[in-house]
Design a protein that fits this description.
This is Transposase. With 439 residues, the chain is α+β, with helices and mostly antiparallel strands. 51% of the residues lie in helices and 19% in strands. The strands form two sheets. The protein has a five-stranded mixed sheet, with helices on both faces. A four-stranded antiparallel sheet has the order 3-2-1-9. The longest helix is centred in the N-terminal third of the chain and has 36 residues. The two termini are 46 Å apart.
Length: 439
C-alpha cells in the first residue's frame, strides 16, 4: 500500500508549483519579510505516511541578510522539518504515549512507514509541533470542559454537577552541566462530575520545575475563569481537592478563596477539601505511636477512619488520640511524631468535613490529581535512566496533556487551519495584500 500511494503523493506535491520557474511569482511576502525567487528549483527529501519522496520546489531569497531561504511550496504543504502534517502528527502522538522512548518511536516509524528518522529529526519535528499545539491547547480544553459541564447539567441525580480542580508536585530528574538534579515539577487537573457523582472527564496541565510554579498557577486559573465566563447555565459546585502542600495551599489562599465570578462580579464559593487519604495516613501514624501492639493499633485506626467520615469526625479522632496519649508514656521521637500528626489534623479541621462532602457529592480524595502525576510524568518522563532538559521535557508535556485531555485531533486541526501562507506576487501587490490581511 505504501508503494502504491507514494507516487501519487509525490506527483501531487510536485505540482503545487509550476514546473517552469518563470511561471511562478517572482516575489513573495511572508511574516513581514520580502523574498525574491531564485532561478533554479531545489530538490528536497520529504517524509510522508507513504514513505520518503522527492519534492522539487523553488526557493526565495530574503531581502534582509541573515534570514533563511523561503520555500513557499513547503510552507503551503505544511511540511515541518521535511515531514508531512500527517506523518509529523503521528510521530508526535507516538512520543506522547506512555512508555515511549526515542528508540521505540524510531522503531515504530520504521515498521509503519518503511524508513526511520534520526534523533535530531525526531526532536526537531516534536518541538515544532509541540510549540504550535500549545498555542491552541487552552481553548480546546475549555471547550471540552464546557461540553462536560453541559452533559453533567443535563444528567439526572440528587447532586449538583461538580467542577473539581486540583494540583500536585512530582520530582523530575533534570540534566545539568555536571550530572543530574531533582526538582519539583507541577501537574494540574480540572474534572467534571455529573449529578450521580460520576467523573465525565479531566483536563490536564503539566509544567517543568520552576520556583513558585507561576506558569501552572496562571494556566489553571485561566482555564477555570474561562469556563465560568462562557458557561451560562446554573453554576456547578466548585471544589478544590489536594493534599496540604505549600504550593497547593498557597494557590487556594491567594487565588481561589477570593475569586470573583467573571460575569456576576460575586465572590465564588469554593469547597476546600484536604485529601481524605492523606488525613488517613496521619491517623495511622498516630496509631503506630500510641499503641505498642500492632493489632490494637490497627483496630484503633480502623475505628478512627470510620469516625472521620461522620459529622464532627475529626474532633472525635483528636479527642480519642488525646485520651490515649494521656495514659501513655512516649519517647522524645514518638512525642514529636505524635505532635506532627495531631497538629496536621487539628489545623485543617475546617477542610475535613467529609460527612458533608459525601452528602453533597464532592470528591473526598485527590486521586485524579495523584494519578495525573503517574500518567503524565511517571509513565513517560521517569522511565529507566531518563534525564531531561527543561525545554525538551516541556515539549513532551505539551503533547502529553493534549493527548490525555482528549483534544488531540481538535488541536491539530486548528494548528493546520492557522497555518500562515506566503503572499505571492510583486512587492507592491504583496505589500498591499499583507496590509489588507492585517486590517
Amino acid at each position: 500500500m505504501r508503494e502504491m500511494g507514494r507516487p501519487f503523493v509525490e506527483f501531487a506535491y510536485n505540482h503545487v508549483e509550476p514546473a517552469d520557474g518563470e511561471e511562478s511569482s517572482r516575489h513573495a511576502q511572508y511574516e513581514h519579510e520580502s523574498y525574491t525567487r531564485v532561478r533554479r528549483a531545489t530538490p528536497q527529501n520529504a517524509w510522508t505516511v507513504f514513505g520518503p519522496i522527492r519534492v522539487r520546489r523553488f526557493g526565495y531569497r530574503p531581502s534582509q541578510a541573515g534570514e533563511p531561504m523561503l520555500f513557499p511550496a513547503a510552507v503551503r504543504l505544511g511540511l515541518v522539518s521535511g515531514a508531512s502534517p500527517a506523518r509529523a502528527c503521528r510521530a508526535c502522538e507516538l512520543l506522547a504515549e506512555a512508555g515511549a522512548t526515542q528508540h521505540r518511536v524510531r522503531a515504530r516509524r520504521r515498521a509503519d512507514y518503511g524508513v526511520g528518522w534520526g534523533v535530531k529529526k525526531l526532536r526537531q519535528v516534536s518541538r515544532a509541533i509541540a510549540d504550535d499545539r500549545a498555542t491552541f491547547r487552552h481553548d480546546a480544553q475549555v471547550e471540552q470542559l464546557l461540553a462536560w459541564v453541559a452533559a453533567a447539567d443535563a444528567s439526572t441525580g440528587r447532586h449538583k454537577p461538580v467542577l473539581c480542580a486540583g494540583r500536585d508536585g512530582i520530582t523530575l530528574r533534570l540534566r545539568v552541566t555536571k550530572g543530574s538534579l531533582y526538582e519539583v515539577a507541577s501537574t494540574g487537573t480540572i474534572s467534571v462530575y455529573d449529578r450521580r457523582g460520576r467523573r465525565l472527564g479531566t483536563a490536564y496541565l503539566a509544567y517543568t520545575p520552576e520556583p513558585g510554579q507561576p506558569t501552572m498557577t496562571g494556566a489553571l486559573t485561566d482555564a477555570i475563569r474561562d469556563v465560568l465566563t462562557q458557561w451560562e447555565g446554573g453554576l456547578p459546585r466548585l471544589c478544590y481537592v489536594t493534599d496540604a502542600g505549600d504550593n497547593e495551599t498557597g494557590y487556594y489562599e491567594a487565588v481561589l478563596r477570593g475569586m470573583i465570578h467573571p460575569r456576576t462580579g460575586q465572590v465564588v464559593a469554593w469547597v476546600r477539601v484536604i485529601d481524605y487519604y492523606h488525613a488517613s495516613g496521619r491517623v495511622w501514624l498516630l496509631a503506630g505511636v500510641l499503641f505498642a501492639d500492632a493489632g490494637r493499633a490497627a483496630r484503633w485506626a480502623h475505628t478512627m477512619l470510620r469516625w472521620l467520615l461522620t459529622p464532627g469526625g475529626v474532633n472525635r479522632v483528636l479527642h480519642s488520640a488525646a485520651a490515649v496519649r494521656a495514659i501513655r508514656t512516649l519517647t522524645r521521637t514518638q512525642t514529636k511524631e505524635y505532635r506532627t500528626a495531631y497538629d496536621y489534623l487539628r489545623s485543617r479541621m475546617s477542610h475535613m468535613d467529609y460527612a458533608r462532602y459525601r452528602r453533597v457529592g464532592v470528591p473526598l480524595g485527590s486521586g485524579v490529581t495523584e494519578a495525573a502525576c503517574k500518567t503524565v510524568f511517571t509513565q513517560r518522563l521517569k522511565l529507566s535512566g531518563m534525564r531531561w532538559g527543561k525545554d525538551g521535557a516541556q515539549a513532551i508535556l505539551n503533547l502529553r496533556v493534549i493527548l490525555l485531555s482528549g483534544v488531540w485531533d481538535v488541536v491539530y486541526q486548528r494548528v493546520l487551519a492557522a497555518w500562515t501562507l506566503p503572499v505571492m506576487g510583486g512587492h507592491a501587490d504583496s505589500h498591499q495584500k499583507t496590509l489588507e490581511i492585517a486590517a
